[in-house]
Amino acid sequence: MTEPNAQRLLLVDDDETFRERLARALRARGFDVDTADGPDVAMAVARRVHPQVAIVDLRMPKGSGLELVGSLHALDAQMHILVLTGYGSIATAVEATRLGAAGYLAKPADADDVLRALADPAADSEAEANTPSLARVEWEHINRVLADCEGNLSEAARRLGIHRRSLQRKLQKYPPRR
Questions:
Q1: What pLDDT does residue 158 have?
Q2: Quick check: 108 pLDDT over 90?
Q3: Which one, of 48, 46, 49, 87, lies nearest residue 66 by Cα?
Q4: Which end of the chain is more exposed for a tag (fewer CB within 10 A), N or C?
């Protein structure tokens, strides 16, 4: 149950486990949360419920998070849009801001990280300006290559120039925070 004056929030992410876990945590903090697994569903939900806040994953198999940011901003210029991504870069942060995003947050992120970013987007931008650790950059690169190979470990290992078993070991570790 949500509060009668709860802020309406749209959460868009293709990772069902992450999306539902974050939605539960945000509901527990008083938000009225609607979810979508891609841009088409997100736009349909946004037209129907008119959320004040949208949290949008950058990379989704069903479409671009950047295009969705632009579409949501065109639908409601007052909507507070936060881009959430595991594939962060300065170029995508600039583009997301240009399209109407108020904030940009790197995964892994939890509900507290999201609330901090929603409360003070400028503080989040300062935090994102810090250089990530080498371990974090390596983890992001490995996952980007694996996504480009559509989850094929052998092909990803070949492209990365490492043994398949070494890649499996690296993927079993939790991603570094920074």
A1: 94
A2: no
A3: 87
A4: N
